[in-house]
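Predict the structure of 4-hydroxythreonine-4-phosphate dehydrogenase.
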Amino acid sequence: MTQAPQVIALSCGEPGGIGPEIAVAAWQRLRQDCPFVWIGDPRHLPKGTPTQVVQHPAEATEICADAFPVMPLQFAGDNTPGTADSRNAAGVIQSIETAVALVTSGQASAVCTAPIHKKALIDGAGFAYPGHTEFLAALAGVDRVVMMLASQQLRVVPATIHIALSEVPTALTPSLLREVITLTEQGLRQQFGIPAPRIALTGLNPHAGEGGAMGHEELDWIADLIGEMRTEGLSLTGPHPADTLFHAAARKTYDAAIAMYHDQALIPIKTLDFDKGVNVTLGLPFIRTSPDHGTAFDIAGQGRANPSSLIEALRLAQTMAAARNA
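Done. Here is the predicted structure for 4-hydroxythreonine-4-phosphate dehydrogenase.
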């Protein structure tokens, strides 16, 4: 089977946010060694950007050194930095769909997505998904995906995301945690090239329940599920107290950690590597990465946006594509 070219399809994200300027900043840093093609309306890019239109992503490998490769889309509105324009909603959605089509057809090696503004998409195009990830899952035709936050220091997966802390004990079920463990293990093997992934799991409660003194979920079913999946051949440890799982020595003992809820996972990675964390979606039939930040309307167009997370997202997408092909 012919391998996809090592070119990443970068969707434009919200035009009024920092997406256009960090895309150009990332190109300026990476153009010698990480080709990508930007999908969006060239009018939305910073003035003076040396663009070149491409018809096929593979053209970017030759163009990237000298010009910013663009697969142009015509949006309904211009962009005003710091302001979302709902007229551009259909174009933002089309940019994501185009990126997915390019990678699923083998024309690109991975998808990287710039931040979107959900309200603008709802107002302008009736966007029916909670966010980027769910839309990508729908485009790919899969029911369950997993969010991983990754940096050079830590890979961590929250089993439950973006729900109130009071809802976590109900949402966290044996079937959900089994799916999260399975997709994480498969992703580490297939997309990160780790043949026998080591996964550590936190407990739900402080001190992993401390023998039932601080909660019973660990005793009632979490430890049993981990033991059961170990007998199936997975390299799992836990449940560990979350407050001792993320220091330097502990991180050397696993390839990824699974935490039981959002803050348990995101606080350590944002503390360790705030500017360079990357959002990776596991469970899709293609590679998808994204910077771990939002549209940052408050600094858009001011030349203050830090492109580090997007740069790392593009680099990681390239590394994952190479590992998958190998």
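The longest helix spans residues 308-325.
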